[in-house]
Amino acid sequence: MLNKSVAVFAILFCTIATAHAQQVISLYEGAAPGSEEWTHEENEFFSNIFRTEVVTNVVHPTLAVYKPDKANGTSVIVCPGGGFHALSINSEGVDVADWLNEQGITAFVLKYRLVPTGEDGVKDMLQKNSKPEQLKKDMRMILPLAVADGATAIEYVRSHAEELGVKSNRIGIMGFSAGGTIAVALALENSSETRPDFVAPIYAYLGDMDGLESKDVPKNAPPMFLTAATNDQLGLTPHSVSLYSKWIAAKKPAELHLYAKGGHGFGMKTQNLPTDRWIDRFGEWLVVQNLVSKAKS
Fold first, then answer.
1. pTM here?
2. Number of domains forming the structure of the chain
3. Among 157, 202, 211, which Cα is nearest to 178's?
4. Cα separation of 13 and 18, whole Å?
5. In terms of DSSP bridges, do strands 62-66 and 23-26 run parallel, antiparallel, or are they unpaired?
6. pLDDT by residue for the chain (297 residues), tens digit each?
7. CA-CA 20 to 30 A from 106: which of 53, 129, 160, 280?
């Protein structure tokens, strides 16, 4: 069983991106299992490539807690994307948490372990595009650790539901791109402690990752919300379509929204495109699933 021990740090020690979180929870006491020898340091900076704030070199996985003024009991663990080399911590993390709080939902932004990189993890990742096999190898290497962090996050929230002010049977997980890989992995394979009650893969990456695309939909598969843009530069749209089709074939609840434009990594960015409102569709889906009483735009 994964280590349930945690330490709660004062807001004073939060990073800039999580500065308005009520608390930051360390998922493991001491070194995280499987990466005990890691010595590199976490880095946060504005990426000129991603054009947003990113976090790289996560060694100590954490959950940043964002509580709404009036909680309705539903919670979502948010997993930012970044190719397992970085986390788009604002557009796919904190900004999502803010919207969830407006709906009365308690949000937890997960910093999961990443491929160790140099000073600019985004640049390092893009340089590997000329060596795709190395990129895939690095991502496959980190996947079990990242998924373990996601599982530990769900387990922690469920076991501390009362003190966190959430319902233990209304814990969802939303993941963007690589974060979506984590969300899907946990929907496909879990225990009673680590099963998400609902899942939202957003332009998720599934290709060549631990056989996720070929795994059967489990009997306890949670309801799923998916969205992506047809002009995704990484060509990931078919991953969402395939996953939706598998869920429906297994007679499990699923809803898929595809947009003509929006590209990859639109997150909470404003592009003056229909993708700007994808999260409102998610809010409507939450109402249909009886997870919130009424979505606020």
1. 0.93
2. 1
3. 202
4. 10
5. antiparallel
6. 444 444 444 333 345 556 688 999 999 999 999 999 999 999 999 999 998 999 999 999 999 999 999 999 999 999 999 999 999 999 999 999 999 999 999 999 999 999 999 989 999 999 998 888 999 999 999 999 999 999 999 999 999 999 999 999 999 999 999 999 999 999 999 999 999 999 999 999 997 777 888 899 999 999 999 999 999 999 999 999 999 999 999 999 999 999 999 999 999 999 999 999 999 999 999 999 999 987 776
7. 53
Whether 296 maps to a domain, the answer reads no
Dist. CA 241–CA 182, nearest whole Å? 17
DSSP, collapsed to helix, strand or coil, labels residue 245 as: helix
Q: Which helix (H) or strand (E) holds 135?
A: helix 132-159
Q: Which CATH number does the domain housing residue 46 bear?
A: 3.40.50.1820
DSSP structural state of residue 18: G
Tell me the C-alpha distance between 49 and 74, whole Å.
35
Looking at residue 237, its amino acid is T
Spatial distance between the Cα atoms of 150 and 252, rounded to a whole number of angstroms: 22
Evaluate whether residue 243 is within a structural domain.
yes
Pair 47, 122: CB distance under 8 Å:
yes
Q: Which domain holds residue 256?
A: 7-288
What is the Cα–Cα distance from 291 to 164, expressed in whole angstroms?
A: 17
In a domain, 248, yes or no: yes
Other beta carbons within 10 angstroms of residue 229's beta carbon come to 25
In a domain, 72, yes or no: yes
Question: Which helix (DSSP H) or strand (DSSP E) does residue 77 occupy?
Answer: strand 75-79
